[in-house]
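Hey,
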Amino acid sequence: MNIHSTASGRDFPIVAKLLGYFGVIPFVALALCLVAGVDLNAYGVENGVQLLLAYAAIIISFIGAVHWGIALNSAAESQARLYTYSVVPALLAWAWWFLSAKFALIGMAVTVVALYFIDRQWLKDIVPVAYLTMRLHLTIVVSLSLLLAAIAS
């Protein structure tokens, strides 16, 4: 199967779109709670910022893992680059955790935006156009949520 030839014309499953868009709910909810000063302890959450950072790290790792999945179906000449790059986002997200919460949130936001631009360039001929459109939408919401939380923290 040559994933390069028809990628831009393939359908993007509705379940993938729904899961992608539902995935922003924790970002928006936690950011709004932090901005509004909601006492998350009342809901069993000791540290809303750390919860948001954890979720951001998971999602950033997931974004990198897309490249691992693509590498499994790619030509040998592009596999090494894809496999190598696929772990970089997780390492970046982990590294942000060593900074103060405010800088970690900003770093995560910048990482999400940077990953979108890298993916738009590297994956434009490989994935459905609808995937990159969804990624743009998600990138905007996620990065703004993280920046709002950084302002609130």
